[in-house]
Write a structure and sequence with these properties.
Elements (H helix, E strand, L loop, with lengths): L23 H10 L2 E2 L8 E5 L5 H9 L4 E6 L2 H13 L5 E5 L2 H6 L7 E7 L1 H4 L2 H14 E12 L8 H12 L5 H17 L3 H5 L1 H13 L2 H8 L9 H9 L4 E5 L4 H6 L3 H7 L5 H12 L3 E7 L4 E2 L2 H9 L2 E4 L18 H12 L3 E2 H5 L4 H13 L3 E4 L6 H11 L4 E4 L4 E4 L2 H13 L4 H14 L4 E3 L2 E3 L1 H25 L4
Parallel strand pairs: 2-3, 2-5, 3-4, 5-6
Antiparallel strand pairs: 1-9, 6-8, 7-8, 10-11, 10-12, 13-14, 15-16
Helix pairs in contact: 7-8, 21-22, 21-23, 22-23
This protein binds S-adenosylmethionine.
């Protein structure tokens, strides 16, 4: 391991991902639901991401907020070089990538301005205690009063029974030589042999252990190396995290989920009776995590809230809001991948309204109780079926998206949602052609993609059949028609086309 890695396995790169929970709009809407007024996102603000990986989340946020400044830090030069390249090519001028370790950042405070947001995804679990201290120090020295910290990490008690698998994998992998992937594979083999010997610990916790062991084979190995092989790996109780962050005067606001505040009002009466005996907020969280067997936490902290909102002030925020669909409007019972807090018809009517276009909150309320409408929208938002709509003008995102598509990325920025959209490969190709040819006509797009594939002597594999010539063209026409009716409206409303 090279010395700059500080116990962190960095010989292979992390997977490039996008984490909606880090979005300024998502964090501030969550804060509003928790009754906390936060940063005005219409004015310039500064956002710092610690451990940005390939920087996809920061890049998309920078494209969606041209009036804000983003700083994204990672000590892995490959991550930073690739992220910087994309930013330069897309002409993004409001993002700075810094190839620095947390220790270096902490030692050279002039690198960083005062920030409104500091976000870190998963890092607290994966680094050493020394680096955890650097992160806390960076928050202490560089977060503005009233600023927000987003911190996600592996949590206990959810990880308690699976933690020994991490310990086994880490300790076993250290015995072998070779790349982290090779050492990981050898360690998994040995643990499978251990499983065959039916150890008592595995038998006692069979469900949890089996799920973990299955995951070691099914999931992306790049992710798995990062999840399991870091020397400092730790899962935390909330109370421990609160103690770390208190050093930087950070107070817990609530979970980074649009429905977290709602869920807290819907606890079973027995849970509420129990919690009534607990005065300390950190201990309440501990009780809730035990009730829910929490395995991963996404927490929002602030240093001195700007203001507290009562119920009517929260509703006022919603009164001014507009909404759009976040994915094609297909709403049958299968769409309820969440437990509806209200009658299903309310959700259906909201989605029906939104399939006709962007709606204001008052249109959506349409005679319904405003609080119910708000809660149903929050559940749909958390399920990524709808999203707030922001009528801002943004010319940066279109160029940025063209660059992403050129680099075969499936994610694009949706500036009116201040979020992202993940496209399937052909959806991305039709989008690229639509931008290039300045047409949205399905038949022309299908013809253009067809000619492109033919010129490269490429075929399409569909349901085990190889399509070329007329069958390939007909298949592309079907795909383009579907794109036109389902994806194009999202691209238009989202401001991507
Ligand atoms: C969870 S991953 C990246 C997540 C990232 N936010 C994303 O969107 O993909 C953690 C990142 O932290 C970086 N990292 C780990 N330890 C670090 C340290 N001490 N200083 C700076 N970066 C570090 C790693 O290189 C890795 O890219």
């Amino acid at each position: 391991m090279q010395t700059w890695m500080e116990g962190y396995e960095s010989d292979i790169e992390y997977t490039a991902g996008y984490y909606r929970e880090q979005e300024p709009n998502f964090l501030s809407l969550c804060a509003v639901t928790h009754g906390i007024q936060t940063i005005n996102l219409e004015k310039p603000f500064t956002y710092l991401e610690l451990g940005c990986g390939y920087g996809m989340t920061s890049l998309i946020m920078a494209a969606n907020y041209p009036h804000a400044q983003f700083i994204a830090v990672d000590f892995n030069p490959t991550h930073i070089a690739q992220a910087q390249n994309l930013a330069t090519e897309a002409g993004l001028t409001n993002i700075t990538f810094l190839e620095r370790s947390f220790a270096q950042l902490n030692a050279e405070p002039l690198f960083l301005p005062e920030c409104d947001f500091i976000a870190l995804h998963g890092i607290f679990t994966w680094v050493s205690d020394e680096n955890r201290q650097h992160i806390v120090d960076i928050c202490e020295h560089h977060l503005k009063a009233g600023g927000i910290v987003y911190n996600s990490y592996n949590a206990k008690p959810g990880w308690s029974m699976a933690e020994p698998i991490q310990k086994l994998l880490y300790a076993t992998s250290k015995q072998f030589s070779g790349s982290s992937l090779e050492r990981f594979d050898k360690a998994v083999k040995l643990i499978q042999q251990l499983q065959a010997a039916k150890p008592r610990f595995f038998a006692t916790n069979e469900n949890v252990i089996q799920k973990r062991l299955d995951g070691l084979i099914a999931k992306d190995r790049h992710y798995l190396v990062h999840e399991y092989l870091h020397e400092g790996w730790r899962a935390f109780y909330f109370t421990e995290i609160a103690q770390w962050l208190r050093q930087a005067k950070l107070e817990f606001i609530g979970g980074a989920a649009a429905t977290d505040a709602l869920a807290r009002t819907q606890l079973a009466p027995t849970t509420n009776q129990l919690l009534a005996h607990i005065q300390d907020n950190d201990t309440r969280e501990l009780y809730l995590d035990i009730m829910q067997n929490t395995i991963f936490r996404r927490d929002i902290f602030t240093r001195g809230a700007v203001g507290h909102l009562d119920n009517s002030a929260r509703l006022r925020w919603f009164n001014d809001s507009q909404w759009m669909l976040a994915k094609p409007a297909r709403f049958d019972d299968a769409a309820f991948n969440f437990k509806p807090a209200l009658p299903k018809d309310l959700y259906r009517s909201l989605v029906d309204h939104l399939s006709a276009g962007v709606c204001t909150f008052s249109t959506l309320t349409n005679g319904n109780n405003r609080r119910d409408t708000m809660n149903a929208l929050l559940q749909l938002y958390q399920a990524n079926m709808v999203t707030p709509y922001y009528a801002n003008v943004n010319k940066v995102a279109a160029r940025f998206n063209q660059t992403l598509i050129k680099h075969n990325q499936s994610l694009i920025a949706l500036p009116h949602a201040r979020s992202s959209l993940r496209l399937k490969p052909f959806e991305a190709q039709f989008y690229a052609m639509a931008l290039q040819l300045k047409t949205q006509e399905a038949s022309r797009l299908a013809q253009a993609v067809f000619q492109d594939l033919e010129s490269k002597q490429m075929t399409i594999n569909h349901k085990g059949e190889t399509l070329k010539g007329t069958p390939m063209k007909n298949h592309l026409i079907n795909l383009a028609n579907k794109w036109h009716s389902e994806i194009l409206p999202l691209l238009k409303q989202g401001g991507a086309i």
